[in-house]
Amino acid sequence: MERDFTVEKGFHHRSLVSQSVLRSQSFSVIAHDGDGVPTWIKDANGKYLPQMRRLCDLNADMSGLQGSLQTLHGPLGPYYDVHHGVSIRLGGTKLQARLQWKEDGILREGPISILPGALA
After folding, report:
1. pTM of this structure
2. pLDDT at position 120
3. Is residue 14 within a helix (H) or strand (E), and if so which, with residue range?
4. What is the pLDDT of residues 15-30, one digit of tens each?
5. For labelling alongside 38, which of 16, 19, 80, 96 has CA 20 to 30 A away?
6. DSSP code at position 4
7. What dihedral angle (degrees, nearest 10) is formed by the CA atoms of 13, 16, 18, 23?
């Protein structure tokens, strides 16, 4: 495995209320300590499998995405739509995470707070 690498995950949120799309969002980062590629993260009872552990949680303030919020119209009336990504840089001396989105065709970034889990 490379010493330093980035993992990116895209997200898409829709809501009938614009403020609910722009609230803070939390994401958990899960680490796999086993061999091979895992099929499942949790068991049937919702507990992490032995080779899985919560590394940390990320908390993103979504208010910066106001400019990329789209108002769309569906059968039930208007709704709000926003696309964004989370980029996590692993390796080096510390974990780094950024919120990413496009606004008027330009890639924008914002901070994400890293809340320790197993990192502590």
Report:
1. 0.76
2. 42
3. strand 5-15
4. 888 777 788 888 888 8
5. 96
6. S
7. -50
